[in-house]
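Worked Example 4.2. Consider the chain below.
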Amino acid sequence: MVVISNPFAVADEIKIIHSLFDEGLSLFHIRKPDFSELEMAQFIHQIKLEFRDQIVLHHHHKLAADFGINRFHFSETERNNNTDFPVRFQKPCRSNSTSTHSIEDFNSIEHYFDYAFLSPVFKSISKENYLPKMNLFEALKSRKNHKTKIIALGGITSENIQKTLENGFDDFALLGTVWNNENPVKQFKLCQTIALSY
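Applying the procedure from the previous section yields the following structure tokens:
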């Protein structure tokens, strides 16, 4: 199970992140698109050393070496506009992920991506008017790429996790259902319990 950071500042954010890790969070994606390199460095610096290996960096990848981070995420735009991924991935790297928005796009991903988000599966909680353009459960029937794990993103809640996993997704990512909740850690634990019982 993956949790993606809120793109905007959250009260007690670092404390919540530490609590999520303490409760068994596997991977935490830091997606702060408006952060400068300095702001990103300051943010990462607050996260305990013991959790750095579970951080996935979306932006300012060159900071990774300074913080012992070896997991990277690339947006769809970055993936489509760069031809040097094989060169980049020769560097010490534990895993790479990317974003997709159609099963055709997912099927075309190169083998050096370990997993990819496919979104939105449901109406987004964090993005206004961000709706599925197709039934992704139906679309998954034409999945041809089985080397890359497919991670459901967009509108994932405790109410639809089981349905999501039953319909072919390998795992899921949480954003709005955690950060838009008044008790993010409790909500995470609920989703975690459902996933573990599947």
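The radius of gyration is 16 Å. The longest helix spans residues 184-197. Compare this with Example 4.1 before moving on.
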